[in-house]
Amino acid sequence: MSKRTLRKITKPVRDTGTGRYKFFSHDLPLFFRNRMPFLRHARSKLKPKEGTTLYVLSTFVLAILLIITLIQISFFTVTLTNISKERNTIKELQAKLDGDMTPYHVDYAATTLKELFSASQLTLITQKYYSYELLINGQPVTAASFTVPKGVLTLEVAEVLSSSNLPPAILTIGSVTGGDTGTKLGTYIAVQNNAGTYTQDYFATMEQEDNKTIASYQIADLQAGNVITITFKDNLAKHLDFASLVLTVE
User: Fold this and answer.
1) What is the dihedral sign for C-alpha 26, 27, 31, 35?
2) Does the chain have fewer CB atoms within 10 Å around its N or its C terminus?
3) What is the topology classification, in CATH, of domain 119-249?
4) What are the strands of the beta sheet with 212-222, ordered from one edge?
């Protein structure tokens, strides 16, 4: 808007016929008239001194609107700058996680994540990195009860960890043990052989193969009529299709 136009809009004009002052008539842009109703259709019965006062007041209002607009522009500029900085920080952190990190960095990342998230949240986040396998004599189990031949029976339960950049101390929270180093996968499996008048318990042999933890059982000298009961406890039962298995020896 040129200075001439602005002067024409904001300066009160005296009507030579009536001696009265007109203020903000048809020259006022629709944008300002819509936002300042008290100036709309302003045929003012103002004396010269009063017209000058309203002129100053209107100028002040326009200045305030301009300042508010500049503040809003400045605020959005700062906000966009902060968002850009945060994105760069995330990219830098991801790059560090993808590369070789010192034990200090790994511990710091684990501590920070534990401060940001609750234990239940970390459990939900990390459980998705684990999958489970249940094999009898090398074959996937598809039913809760079935028959097996006499002789030797092999049971394997495997916990498989997929690739992740999360610190190990965080990843273990999603495992069956929940990161408790005092317990093993086999702790959550109970195997019994109800052989006639007595019951025999079996204990797991633990193995570690890269990203896979295996609890294996080998039951020898099975006789016809023996019943093998396998029970999965607590967290492990939630991840398998079966809470228990009943195997009858033919």
Assistant:
1) negative
2) N
3) Immunoglobulin-like (2.60.40)
4) 139-140, 130-136, 151-161, 212-222, 205-209
> What are the pLDDT digits (tens) for 86-95?
556 555 666 6
Q: Which residue has the tokens 């109703």?
A: 37
State how beta strands 145-148 and 244-249 pair.
parallel
- The reported pTM is 0.57
Structure tokens at 103: 């034990």
Residue 132, Cβ density class (10 Å: 0-12 exposed, 13-18 middle, ≥19 buried): middle
Reduced DSSP (H G I as helix, E B as strand, rest coil) percent helix, strand, coil of the chain, to 5: 45, 25, 30
Spatial CB neighbours of 172, under 8 Å, sequence gap ≥ 6: 126, 178, 179
